Amino acid sequence: GAVVSQHPSWVICKSGTSVKIECRSLDxxxxxMFWYRQFPKQSLxxxxxxxEGSKATYEQGVEKDKFLINHASxxxxxxxxxxxxxxxxxxxxxxxxxxxxxxxxxxxxxxxLTVL
Amino acid sequence: xxxxEQHPSTLSVQEGDSAVIKCTYSDSASNYFPWYKQExxxxxxxxxxxxxxxxxxxxxxxxxTLNKTAKHFSLHITETQPEDSAVYFCAxxxxxxxxxxxxxxxxxxxxxx
Lengths: 116, 113
Known about the structure:
Mean pLDDT of chain B: 94
Largest sheet of chain A: 7 strands, mixed
Radius of gyration of chain B: 13 Å
Helix content of chain A: under 10%
Radius of gyration of chain A: 13 Å
Number of helices of chain B: 0
Number of helices of chain A: 0
Oligomer: heterodimer
Helix content of chain B: under 10%
Order of helices and strands of chain A: EEEEEEEEEEE
Distance between the termini of chain B: 41 Å
Mean pLDDT of chain A: 92
Order of helices and strands of chain B: EEEEEEEEEEE
Number of strands of chain A: 11
Strand content of chain B: over 45%
Shape of chain B: globular
């Protein structure tokens, strides 16, 4: 149980285009999902906290107009990188909290974004 | 906001020896401290966690200790094996902020056969 999937697993796009990444909790309801970005040889940096049915809460320094987050249901959150640039190339990972259990988070497999 | 520091950044040990990774956190309201192991290109895997009402927890070769007063927590791996080689992250979670998890900078552990 407690499986989180992400789609796509990798994506290559041209500079200026938008990319959407999906995060799904497959066998549990996730009231809260989190989006992280990880550059090579660095830690996971929290970008935003996404709660079902409400606006996402962004961490300081993260542009909410560039990284659009939608949490439309208890099993799906999406991250859209708008007008992507090469510096947005990174590993994006989502995690989800199980509605019935506190604290523990379950991570998706990550999405490798490369912007040319 | 919460800030998590971690030392050392790299650690190399002989197979069979112990490895210790230390972390500190800044926000005394943090109440949950997970440790993750991440292999290259993969998702973080929870290996052990501890809550603020507990001082120590052990699971086979892995143990974690927590000193709330000093805001320190540590990971201990005994009888290390080559498959323990990976990047380890400590983290702290704030109950008051939807349990968001803030990661430390990571420790790259190499176990030499």
